[in-house]
Write a structure and sequence with these properties.
alpha+beta; Cytidine Deaminase, domain 2; binds zinc ion
Length: 173
């Protein structure tokens, strides 16, 4: 009897774990600190075109918080999201070793209105992933979800399965 041939395709399943908190009151003290810092940062957003003010905050290993905001431009693609101004701003402002990031939070609101959902775009997810890989230590993340809840992830990599990473580049000659 011939051996069964291998199936030509396999359906696989991805699972993702995150916490959904009904309110920010359930956050720990450091989580609450970075959550509030992201919201406060929205006051410094430059968003005359989208009128959507986004803030991002990074909690560093030494307990300090580094903030970023979306910065738009009349030449639209020249602008940058809050997540990337925070991450690039932190890395770019340290000539020596970049401080390790422990946690991150994002907040967003219309120019006139209440805080709402603010989920990172694909480009930011790519940069967030590499920032985490670069430091070799997971970064937890808090996001305002679509239904007013807080979404808590254990690591930034969870936001970007099947990502492109430095290991996908050809070896350097
Ligand atoms: Zn983005």
């Amino acid at each position: 009897m011939p051996a069964a041939s291998a199936p030509s395709s396999t359906r696989r399943q991805l699972s993702l774990h995150y916490d959904e908190l009904a309110t920010p009151d359930q956050l720990s003290a450091p989580e609450r600190q970075v959550w509030e810092a992201a919201r406060a940062a929205t006051a410094h957003s430059y968003a005359p075109y989208s009128h959507f003010h986004v803030g991002a905050a990074l909690l560093l290993e030494d307990g300090t918080v580094f903030q970023g905001t979306n910065q738009e431009n009349a030449a639209y693609p020249s602008g940058l999201c809050a997540e990337r101004t925070a991450l690039f701003g932190l890395a770019g402002s340290h000539l020596g070793a970049v401080p390790r990031i422990v946690g991150m939070a994002v907040a967003g609101r219309p120019a006139q209105g209440e805080f709402t959902a603010a989920l990172p775009c694909g480009a930011c997810r790519q940069v967030m992933l590499e920032s985490e890989m670069r430091q070799g230590q997971p970064i937890w993340l808090l996001l305002p979800g679509p239904t007013g809840t807080v979404l808590r992830f254990e690591r930034l990599a969870d936001l970007l399965p099947f990502h492109f990473s430095p290991s996908d580049l050809p070896p350097r000659l």
